[in-house]
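Hey, sorry for the delay on this. The queue was backed up all week. Below are the sequences that define the complex (chains, strands and the ligand SMILES where applicable).
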Amino acid sequence: MEKLIVKNLNHHYGFTSILENINFELNKGQVLSIVGPSGGGKTTLMHLCADLIDVQEGNIKNSFTSSSFAFQESRLLPWKNVIDNIALGLKAQKISTKMAQVRAKKIALRFGLEEIDFDKFPKDLSGGMRQRVSFARALVTKPSLLFLDEPFSALDIGLKKELQSLLIEMIDKKELSVLFITHDLMEAIRLSDEILLLKADPGRIVKKFKYDLPQSKRDDKFVYSQSAKILQDEEIIDTFELELK
Amino acid sequence: MKFVFKILKDFPSYLWSGWGAIASIFLFFACWDLGYQIYGELVLPSPLETLSTLWVMSHNDSVIEDAKITLYRAFFGFGLSVLFGSILGLIAGLFATASIMSRPIVTILVGMPPIAWIVLAMIWFGMGDFTVIFTVVVASFPIVFVGALQGTRTLEGDLKEMGKSFKLPLHVKFLDIYFPHIFSYIFPAWVAALGMAWKIVVMAELLSTSDGIGAALAVARSHLDTPTALALVVIMISSMMFIEYIILEPIKREVELWRN
Ligand SMILES: Nc1ncnc2c1ncn2[C@@H]1O[C@H](COP(=O)(O)OP(=O)(O)O)[C@@H](O)[C@H]1O
Ligand SMILES: [Mg+2]
């Protein structure tokens, strides 16, 4: 069984403690969200999980067979056009360049990019388009575990919903596990099997929420009623005190 | 390959954009002719006379021989600078200590007037090929070195991390992530170094050899043969312009298309 296990994780930059005693598990086919205020250490936690920075204290075990990462700040290669950027993710796999292009184009279209954008360089794209390219680059590899660091933050409502449904479709087939960062509570409720509430200074998990209803069965009513319920929670009010006022 | 094709495809439209440049060249010729009418032939021969001298010279074997020698020296020196400047710059850029230590040396190399190098080289190596090539290398090497150093120093950690997250193989990381960035620094440095090499080679020849365009220029000066001197200057400038505008600029445009 593929799994990500985080145990007693601590992290500091210099003398500042960023993460304190983090524990959680992510199983195959699950979506785990980390919700919390910005500066709380969410990105740091995810980079640790993805083995992009070294663990200082504690343990992370990742037995997923493949993974990919969509970064908060898209991180596209400025000298490559949209399609070549997306196809980059496939270069670690044994796929012909031609096939990689075909797959990149297919997924680009699914992600709401248009044919006239294919040859554009990142400098000529809007923030939302860059995020879509970055998201597509992560998904084109068909990873078993997907790291998503606020991938929808620069998108408008319509597109956000569209990409969320794409994600839900894949989650439903149980072919994808996701570690998801967001500061949008409703988004987390729509997508997650479990939500971890990360409080800042230092980053620590103060609450966990579980949802059993399959994502595809969650309608707006479910999301609204669950949000309303969560928002009465003392910890949530405390953690988000700045964001909600 | 695709890249070369694209440069060739965009070439006609690039040439078409050159009308403004041509107009300004003609304006320059007009001013030149005006200077001739005011100061007379001995000081400033007319463009027409200069060009006809140039025409005669272009059928003269010894002039062609001189041009070849100069070209050889310039490109040999430039080639050495590119080779060693690029490699050493890359290496220095990879190590913080090496880049800090190389800075004062680069400052000395850049700050030292080329004429001083020529004098030293003449003392060390005597008159001849080696002196000229040495001077060319010394003058253009630091330019390439600094370009390569900066290109390597400014590689973005964010993009490296991205490459790591996709577990890209080393050759892909190098070709797709490091190389384009470094190249965008190193290529302009090559262009600048070539310009430098071309200027220095003539100066060094004028002082330290008996062949090459620079030496021919010295002979023309001693005979007060102004048309020949000017014709030689025209050769130097037009060849520089050819290399810069017809060869390098179109490449640079394609290379830097992604920049804003
Ligand atoms: N490389 C780093 N060096 C020092 N401090 C850092 C570094 N990366 C992040 N931090 C600090 O760690 C804290 C958490 O950052 P981050 O993980 O990006 O939070 P979030 O993603 O929740 O907004 C911030 O205060 C940030 O300034
Ligand atoms: Mg973040």
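The CA atoms of residues 18 and 245 of chain B lie 9 Å apart.

I'll add it to the shared folder too.

S.
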